[in-house]
Amino acid sequence: MVRTQIYLTDRQRTELAIISKTLGKKQSELIREAVDRLIDQTASIRRESTLRGTAGIWKDRVDLPDYSTIRSEWDRG
Question: What is the mean pLDDT of the chain?
Fold first, then answer.
């Protein structure tokens, strides 16, 4: 693990302390769990953004074969 220092508002610090006592977990553990949830939630958004960013990058290439013709050769008549 890597040590990281963060700043919390008074409200965040108070609520985190209450949650920590209620669940019997360390505050650092709760913060790590929250960060993991955020990473999981945004993974699909990041993946979709990457795909959208790469969509059509080959649209202007002229050195690619005509896939329609190649595909038609596979079709059973």
Answer: 91
Per-residue pLDDT for 76 more than 90?
no
Please provide the DSSP assignment of 2-71 as one string: --------HHHHHHHHHHHHHHT--HHHHHHHHHHHHHHHHHHHHHHHHHHHHTTTTTT-SSS--HHHHH
Q: Does residue 71 belong to any structural domain of this protein?
A: no
What's this model's pTM, rounded to 2 decimal places? 0.60
Q: Output the pLDDT for position 17.
A: 98
Is residue 54, in this structure, part of any structural domain at all? no
- Closest to 7 measured CA to CA, from 31, 30, 23: 31
- The tokens describing 6, both together, are 């963060």
Fill in the amino acid letter for 47: R
